[in-house]
Amino acid sequence: MPAQIYHPFEKSNFSNSTCFLSGQKLQSEEEKIQIFPQWLMSMYNLEDKPFKLLDESMATYKDLKLPCSAQVNEAWLEPLEAEIAAAFEVGYDAIKNLDEQKLFQWAGKLLYGIIFNEIQSGIKLQHAQGEEFNISQSIIHKFSQLHLMLQSINQPVYFEDFKPFSLFLFKVENNEEEFGYRDEINTLTFALRIKDFGLIICLQDNGANRMYHREVLEKIEGKTLHPIQFEEFSGRIFYSAYLFNRLPEYNILPVGDDIYIEAMPLRGMSTKPLFDTWNNKTYGQVLESFWKNWGFLLLEIIKDPEHPMSFLFDADGGFKNADDISLPH
Question: Does the pTM of the predicted model rise above 0.90?
Answer without folding.
Answer: yes
